[in-house]
Write a structure and sequence with these properties.
The chain has 309 residues and is of the alpha/beta class. It is 19% helix and 32% strand.
């Protein structure tokens, strides 16, 4: 058995699905952001500007920057309702239609008579979007708050901008809590780049999406299916599971780690590892498990949770 990302037909395409331009609070215009991601070897990009009245509720049009080797998805970062800490919710929506009805979100502070975060997330999913819970550590989200976003396809396990600027860019603990609660959401790694301090918040985390072609339609469908893995650099070439073992093939790394619910783990450690056969016995009591790769520079890659049934 192989997880969806490795069983689906097609090939892997590299993309960033959370970033900003000067249509909201980014420093660069849309053309330059697209140019830089293309120059860095990305296959696709979703510009997700902040959907608030302060910026006239932008859904940034990146279609003019598509070509035979580079495509874009249309999206936005939605905001509506107060989190338990009093701050405004952030919800990623990729694949939004341009006529998506604005929320009552005039600025970056909650106001009365707003949709709740679960409501705007459901509305985005109903409109055809891929919906994700973003930067849960940066936002200070509780487990109950994350569970409330019942329309979410995914949770951000790494946000490069939040990590390099605030040291709050990790989301794995939050993702594991969601899995423990039975929520079957995928993982995404992103930049959330704004380019306000050069390129320090860019090109640090991305998704590798398995699809038959590099088109917005194929990529969006693959994202919704969970046909991807998340990475800061290491590559997962294949994952195969039998009754006793998980078999992993990858680019050269220093650690290949099997993790599940609870403290049980199994790891292969060494130099320039490109494969491992890890016994499932250490996670036999867990309804799900996942794989983490760590290379010699400390960069990581993560599979989605693999559910037993």
């Amino acid at each position: 058995m192989r997880p969806t990302a490795f069983d689906n037909p097609g090939r892997f395409w590299r993309g960033n699905i959370h970033t900003h331009c000067d249509a909201s609070d980014g420093a660069l215009d849309v053309a330059e952001v697209c140019r830089r991601y293309k120059a860095q070897g990305y296959d696709f990009l979703a510009l997700t500007d902040h959907f608030v009245g302060l910026f006239d509720y932008p859904i940034t049009d990146t279609r003019p920057f598509r070509d035979d080797g580079f495509t874009t998805l249309i999206g936005a970062e939605l905001h509506s309702g107060a989190m338990e800490n009093g701050d405004l919710w952030h919800i990623l929506a990729v694949g939004l239609p341009f006529d998506f009805t604005p929320s009552n979100s005039p600025h970056f502070m909650p106001v009365e008579d707003q949709e709740s975060a679960p409501e705007i997330a459901r509305r985005a999913r109903d409109a055809g979007a891929f919906v994700a819970i973003v930067h849960p550590e940066w936002s200070g989200l509780t487990e109950a708050e994350m569970i409330s976003i019942d329309a979410a396809h995914a949770v951000e396990v790494y946000n490069h901008g939040s990590q390099v600027e605030t040291d709050r860019g990790r989301g794995l603990h939050s993702a594991d809590l969601l899995a423990r609660s039975g929520k079957r959401v995928s993982f995404i790694a992103t930049d959330d780049a704004h380019f306000r301090n050069g390129e320090g918040d860019a090109f640090g985390g991305w998704v590798m999406v398995k699809a038959t072609e590099n088109t917005p339609e194929a990529l969006l469908e693959a994202l919704k299916q969970g046909a991807m893995y998340s990475t800061m650099g290491p590559e997962i070439h294949d994952i195969e599971i039998d009754d006793r073992y998980v078999h992993v093939r990858c680019s050269a790394v220093s650690a290949i780690v099997l993790q599940g619910q609870g403290v049980g783990t199994q790891e292969a450690l060494g130099e320039s590892l490109t494969q491992a056969r890890l016994p499932l016995s250490r996670v036999s009591g867990s309804p799900w498990f996942r794989i983490t790769l760590i290379d010699a520079a400390g960069r990581r890659a993560w599979s989605n949770p693999i559910w037993r049934a």
